[in-house]
Amino acid sequence: DGSPQLSAYERKRLKNITENAKFFAALKLHEVSARLHQIATKRQSHATKRAKPKKAEDETVRRRSMRLQRVEPSGIPMPEMPAQPEAEEYPQVPAGPLPMIPEDQMENSKLTEELLATWMSISEVLLVTITNILMILSRYQGSLNSMGLSEDNVKKVVKYRVCSMAIHPSESIIFVAAGDKTGQIGLWNVTCKSEEGAHVFIPHSSSVTCMHFSPCNPAHLLSLSTESLRCGDVTRAVFDEICRSEEGDLSSFDFLEDNASTAVVGYWDGGVAVVDRRTPGTSSELSADIGFKRTRTVHVHPVNKQYFIAAGSADVCVYDVRYLKSNGNKPVSSLKGHTKSVASAYFSPVTGNRVVTVCADDRLRCFSRKGLPFLTRVFYCVLGSMTPPLCHRASQFSVPSVWDPKQEDCFVVGSMARPRQIEVFQDTGKLLHSFYNLDCLSSVCSINVVHPTKNILVGGNSSGRLHVF
């Protein structure tokens, strides 16, 4: 009772010693009793450090090397090494829903509210289904030639390298989202023509590698980083968490349905998963091993949405999501010929009868099967017999390449050629157009996105800057 700092075990131990002392006292064992009583009543003393023995005065001085003394053999002191800069720490984002508040503000400002209100208004107006309008090649080239870049349409939107972009389908306002390598998402109202037209949010803790506006509700912006898949809902000003990976290995995603309720998600370790936004929690509905060492991109077929294509370490395969299981999955089709890692593989936007890939073996490939309708029952035959009419050296290209949603047979890719430019190719390998501007574009645009209905192209570079043609 007099030693409140003792643990319950120690108090019980002392109680036993005291009772033993009484027992031995009754047996007249005075010496033993006195010793035990002394132990029982003695307070616990704080441990003290052992005193270091003093060095003998005549102890010889230990020799130290001249390297440790930072002295040159000549006896001249060496110059001090410059201090190494500390690694910059990125903010860690907690799990669960996050409010839509810019990273440099404690609460929404009037300018932020105006940006979010613009996003909401253009999403409410656009409730019709977006259809792809195919143009004849000459007319399409004319539209490319009419596009240009000005200083007003160049802006640093995020702090670091752009890893993904999405463009809102509005036909009245140019509204772009960009994700960088630290988890930032920048929203830019390009039409605003104002310094306050862009704001930055931090809904992720690592690289935002994939983003899409919901095809059925553009008020929703879905973004994926290595640790989570989130939905930015501007109607509630919240970044909801849809899926979370404790291992931090998510790589890409795409919608399995037009209503965007389900998605297929790729993992850097090679697996894929199916996620349903309607179910509670942040776990996937199904995790599947598809035999890949690494999965970089996944893309769903635009017509037959039960099929998706996955690209990774020299593998490009098509799978049927209806038959996915935990292990032992076999592809319904494989696109052969890649000898190194494949950075991306995407179906053409209208029919899905073409696939464009970018590979580290310095090749751009476009697989196509012309003249045959796409039928589910002959899917293996159609894509299984695809041949690459385009096999172009890609050493001057950055990755990935993306299709123009308005044109079935044309895709866009950033180029490392000088002057810096973004190039448009036809699936035959023909170069249709090069976007460049000596005054406004001096860097490689490795990430590009094209508007689904308007003649608008946005390129992002490694410094967080966007260029809008």
UniProtKB/TrEMBL annotation:
Pfam families: WD40. Keywords: Repeat, WD repeat. GO terms for biological process: regulation of DNA damage checkpoint. It comes from the Eukaryota. GO terms for molecular function: DNA binding. GO terms for cellular component: nucleus. Residues 43-53 have a biased composition (Basic residues). Residues 39-65 are annotated as: Disordered. Belongs to the WD repeat DDB2/WDR76 family. Specifically binds 5-hydroxymethylcytosine (5hmC), suggesting that it acts as a specific reader of 5hmC. Interacts with CUL4A and/or CUL4B. This is WD repeat-containing protein 76. It comes from Smutsornis africanus (Double-banded courser). The gene is Wdr76.
